[in-house]
């Protein structure tokens, strides 16, 4: 079980936002995190968690290489031997296990950031009409939020034709939607409505611009001069991978790409897995803020 879920049933994102904070521990969230973090820090004093996370990502690459070889073999020959099937099962289990371990180290690093920058973190209710802190997380695999039907990771989603979602437009969507079976059908279409707890968040509230209404933010980034500024900031990051967006199948970092025929800035960027077609569209100013943060470009402002 991960750090935040163990502490208060929370669901953390890689960019230091905890969604779903249970009310009775809410007022003491920072104290609880601090206490637990110190305990773990003592326990793992000899470990470099960042290094450990890297080692796990490296191993994940090797495991995926081997799995993909077997998948290729299966497509070519139509079947796998008993031994191959056994090995494939082992590898798939190891991949899930690595995902959990990577999530755990990411949660630990998130907790470290919270402890070090305590004064910037606050517990709050999201704004109903402009849930910026939640739409920022759109498409990111959340730590500790698995689909109840198939145990795949879930992401915060809203319909493509909604540009400025309210809290009611948001839902948890299973990433199995983007995984197709041999007939080309999505393997899981499960969605869940947001609960009252999901609307309570613990996050760094000091991010400039996030206090603005989402339509205002979108209008600002669509101004030609702001659009150009953001494109400049991200120009070196295109085709680079980020650990904040992981492929829900392969769990490897996704790569920032641009569409060749985008209508505007909020149609231009997406993240894609290097192994498969899993993709996250960046369609709101708040998501752009998260992408900029992911590539160490601070944020929109
Ligand atoms: Zn599912
Ligand atoms: Zn993938």
Describe it:
- 37% of the residues are buried.
- Helix 3 crosses helix 5 and helix 4 (49-77) packs antiparallel against helix 5.
- It is globular and about 60 Å long.
- Strand 8 (241-246) and strand 9 form a beta hairpin.
- Helix content is 41%, strand content 15%.
- It has a domain at 209-294.
- The protein is built from 9 helices and 11 strands.
- The strands form 3 sheets. It has a 4-stranded antiparallel sheet with strand order 1-2-7-3, with helices on one face. A 4-stranded antiparallel sheet has the order 8-9-10-11, with no helix packed on it.
- The model has no long low-confidence stretch (mean pLDDT 88).
- It starts with a helix and ends in a 7-residue tail after the last helix.
- By secondary structure, it is α+β, with helices and mostly antiparallel strands.
- Residues 147, 149-150, 152, 174, 176, 188, 190 line the site of one zinc ion.
Largest sheet: 4 strands, antiparallel
Number of E-state strands = 11
Q: What value does the Rg take, in angstroms? A: 20 Å
Question: What share of the residues does DSSP label as strand, in percent?
Answer: 5-15%
Number of helices: 9
Gap between N and C termini:
36 Å
Structural class by SSE content: alpha+beta
Each distinct ligand: zinc ion
The percent of residues in helical segments reads 40-55%
Shape: globular
H/E series: HEEHHHHEHEEEEHHEEEEH
Poorly predicted segments:
none
Biggest sheet, strands in spatial order?
Answer: 1-2-7-3
Mean pLDDT equals: 88
Quaternary arrangement of the chains shown? single chain
């Amino acid at each position: 079980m991960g750090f935040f879920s163990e502490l208060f049933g929370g669901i953390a994102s890689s960019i230091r936002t905890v969604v779903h904070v249970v009310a009775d521990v809410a007022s003491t969230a920072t104290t609880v995190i601090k206490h637990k973090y110190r305990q773990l820090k003592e326990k793992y004093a000899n470990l470099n968690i960042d290094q450990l996370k890297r080692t796990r990502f490296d191993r994940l690459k090797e495991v995926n290489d081997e799995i993909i070889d077997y998948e290729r073999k299966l497509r070519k020959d139509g079947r796998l031997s008993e031994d191959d099937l056994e090995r494939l099962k082992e590898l798939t289990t190891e991949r899930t296990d690595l995902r959990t371990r990577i999530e755990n180290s990411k949660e630990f690093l998130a907790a470290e950031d919270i402890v070090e920058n305590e004064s910037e973190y606050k517990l709050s209710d999201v704004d109903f009409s402009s849930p910026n802190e939640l739409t920022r997380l759109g498409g990111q695999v959340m730590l500790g939020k698995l689909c109840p039907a198939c145990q795949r990771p879930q992401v915060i989603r809203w319909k493509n034709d909604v540009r400025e979602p309210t809290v009611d437009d948001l839902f948890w969507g299973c990433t199995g939607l983007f995984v197709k079976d041999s007939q080309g059908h999505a393997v899981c279409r499960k969605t869940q409505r947001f609960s009252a707890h999901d609307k309570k968040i613990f996050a760094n509230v000091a991010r400039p611009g996030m206090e603005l209404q989402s339509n205002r933010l979108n209008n600002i980034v669509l101004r030609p001069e702001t659009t150009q500024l953001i494109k400049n900031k991200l120009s070196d990051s295109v085709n680079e991978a980020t650990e904040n967006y992981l492929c829900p199948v392969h769990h490897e970092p996704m790569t920032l790409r641009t569409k060749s025929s985008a209508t505007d800035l909020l149609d231009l960027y997406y993240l894609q897995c290097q192994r498969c077609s899993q993709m996250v569209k960046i369609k709101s100013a708040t998501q752009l803020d998260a992408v900029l943060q992911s590539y160490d470009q601070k944020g929109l402002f």
